[in-house]
Each structure stands twice: as structure tokens, then as C-alpha cells.
Amino acid sequence: MLNYKQKKNQPLKGNRFLISVTVLGSSGPIRFVVNEEDLVGAVIQTVLKSYAREGRFPALGSNLNDFLLYCPISETEALSPWDNIGSVGVRNFMLCRKPQTETAIDVEKSPSVSRKATGSWKTWFNNALTLKISSH
């Protein structure tokens, strides 16, 4: 597991700003202040800790390597854990679990069973909106 903690005795550099991170499947965003020099990996770690501390569902776990942070304007590309959060230029993000990969062994064992591919958060969001509109 990668370690993204910054040392507490280091002076803060750069600007601080409020970000909002929506966790896919959760009831609402998590908001907190970050330094523009903070790494994306550190932001993911902070979101996971805050999410668990607040007792939100569904439970996510604490392994930051299982998650990707997306920027709504970059559509399909996840942010690199080594990028600075301030380099993106936005304040709203989406945290999603990494897609599960199917191994060739699993395909050989059950060739007649096909798994539905996991879509992006935008596909999930559009489907949720469609269901909500059709139920009213």
C-alpha cells in the first residue's frame, strides 16, 4: 500500500481550497479543505477515512489502491495518484471503485455465463435518473 501522508512539521505551501467528493452510490458528497499541493492519493485516503468515520453506506474499506478519483470535465480518465489535486483546476470530484477484472481462468470455467460490464459513474448516474423519472 502506498503511503501518502505528509509530514506534520512541513510548512504549508500553496493555496488551500474546499473540495467536494461524491462517492458513487453514497447519499451525498464529502467536503473538506485541501492544499493545492496535496497528492490525489492523499485526497482519496482522506475521503475513505471521512466516509468510514461518518458511518456511511455502502462500506468501502480502507485500501486506497481499490479506488479511482475522477474529474467531471475529464470524462473517462481517472486522475493519477501522484498528481497534485490543485493541478486539475476544479473543486468537484467523483470517487469510484476500480472495475473488477475477470481472469482468463474464470472465463474457461464458466463460458456460458457472461458478466455485465461495469460502466462509468456517468452511466450509473444516467440510469439512476431514468429509473427515478419513470417511477414518478
TrEMBL record:
Source taxon at top rank: Eukaryota
Q: Which InterPro entries match?
A: At4g22758-like, DUF7054
Tell me which residues make up the DUF7054 domain: 14-96
Q: Name one Pfam family in it.
A: DUF7054
Taking the record's annotation, the residue ranges forming a coiled coil are: none
Which PANTHER family does the entry link to?
A: BNAC05G50380D PROTEIN, OS02G0324700 PROTEIN
Which named protein is this?
DUF7054 domain-containing protein
Organism expressing this protein natively: Dorcoceras hygrometricum
